[in-house]
Amino acid sequence: MKTACFALNIIICLSLLTFGATAQNYDPAKVKKKAVQLYNQALEKAEDGNLALAASLFLKSIETDNAYVDAYLSLAGVYGQEKNYQSSVDYYEKAFALDSDYTIEFKLSYSINLAGMGRFRDALNAINYFLDKKPPRNSTALKAAEYRKRCYEFAVDYAKKHPDTTYVFAPKNIGDGVNTAESEYFPSLTIDGKELVFTRRVKGFNEDFYYSKKKFGEWDLAKPMEGDINTPQNEGAQNISQDGQWLVFTGCNRPDGFGSCDIYISYLTPQGWSEAINLGGTVNSDQWESQPCLSPDKKDLYFASRRPGGYGGSDIYVSHLQPNGRWSEPENLGPSVNTPGDEQCPFIHADNQTLYFTSNYWPGYGDDDLFYVRKGPNGAWSEPVNLGYPINTINREGTLFITADGKTAYYSSDRSDSRGGLDIYSFELREDIRPKKTLWVRGHVFDNKTGKGLPSAVELIDLTTKESVSKIQTDETGNYLVTLPVGKDYAFNVNRKGYLFYSDNFLLSLHSPDSTYEKNIALQPIEINASVVLKNIFFDLNKYDLKPESQVELDKLIQLLNENPNLKVEISGHTDNVGSPADNLVLSNNRAKAVVNYLVSKGINTNRLSFKGYGETKPIADNKTDEGRAQNRRTEMKVTGQ
Question: Which helix (H) or strand (E) holds 201?
Answer without folding.
Answer: strand 195-202
